[in-house]
Amino acid sequence: xKLTQEIKASLQKHQKVISIQMDVHHIxxxxxxxxxxxxxxxxxxxxxxxxxxxxxxxxxxxxxNLLQFMNENNCQTREKEVLVGYEDLSYNEVxxxxxxxxxxxxxxxxIIGKIAHFNLSPEQLPYKYLIGQVLLDKNKNLQTVxxxxxxxxxxxxTPQLELLAGKDSxxxxxxxxxxxxxxxxxxxxxxxxxxxxxxxxxxxxxxxxKDQKIQVLDLFCGIxxxxxxxxxxxxxxxxxxxxxxECFFYLKKNITENKLQNQVIPLNMDARDVVLKIYDKQLxxxxxxxxxxxxxxxxxxxxxxxxxxxxxxxVELPYIHVYGFAKGKDEAELIDQFQQRIVxxxxxxxxxxxxxxxxxxxxxxxxxxxxxxxxLDKRSAESDFGLLEQQDENNNSxxxxxxxxxxxxxxxxxxxxxxxxx
Length: 422
Hints:
GMP Synthetase, Chain A, domain 3, Rossmann fold, 4-stranded antiparallel β-sheet, 13 helices, tRNA_Gua_MeTrfase_euk, tRNA (guanine(37)-N1)-methyltransferase activity, tRNA processing, tRNA (guanine(37)-N1)-methyltransferase, TRM5/TYW2-like_N
């Protein structure tokens, strides 16, 4: 279903409103107190000399503060009838009239620069172009509205997008914490909602480090938001690495535009190879924090820190901040699952080492995304170095199957309801 001029015209209707008249000297005071109740698109209308009126959304009985204002300023009211059309209605008002009442207009879209990104539910999909065009019309700062077609199954975790309205362009500029970030939403992974998580981790690293110089190994950096933020905020030195060559392109651009060339080293390598090159002195970098924000796979890469002391000769051990998915009813159950997975890579790891455990979000009813912060344990660091035999690291079927099952269940529910498509 697409938005046409005929559909827009069909929304026109006459609506009764309450018009409030007052002396022009009281207009500023009224606007300050009741601005949100002024009827959208309404202008002050000259009734007579020094008397103007404005249409409002108030309905009788009036609230006490309005009655008090009217009494104190000798205001009068009268009922008017106005013609309301598409341009006067909000995003929610338009969609509530155009799609079936049993379907909720989507609210949870993400803004990336001038791009709006939806994850539409199956029952919303028949109305996707209508939804996209209405959102674009009602948000003049947007240029592109898109929908994610599938989960992030490819190696670079980039989305497959479908254009719903506007320009077929996914270049964007995002400002976060005083850092300017360039990206192409179709070619790199980006999630605006992780802003608060980066804030949390930067604050926690500051608490851990005290007066120590912060040196961060950011192994799955994307376009560099964390490395650039911590470099700017805490004067940290960072290696920022990502396997995706598109991320590497924007990472270099973002480092240059934010003038952080002396603090952030960009790399485009496999994460283990970065650490191995540091061990072999091909890269000179004495890291004391490791940031691993790739929830699907990051824990699998912890094996590269087994034998850390043997490889570096260092006694002081780095802090590791690693993200992952787990299934569980409560925090204790989630931590148990992480402990079972981590100990396969770091044999000395114990859950009592966890300095901070944070649940970011519920991904599905069965899965949560979490972050663990801990210091590499002495036993693992002093063990003989040896990487585990790696299985297919793109395979995360335990969790992806959960998402597919949930999607299939949603689709089946829609079919059973026999939603009528206009």
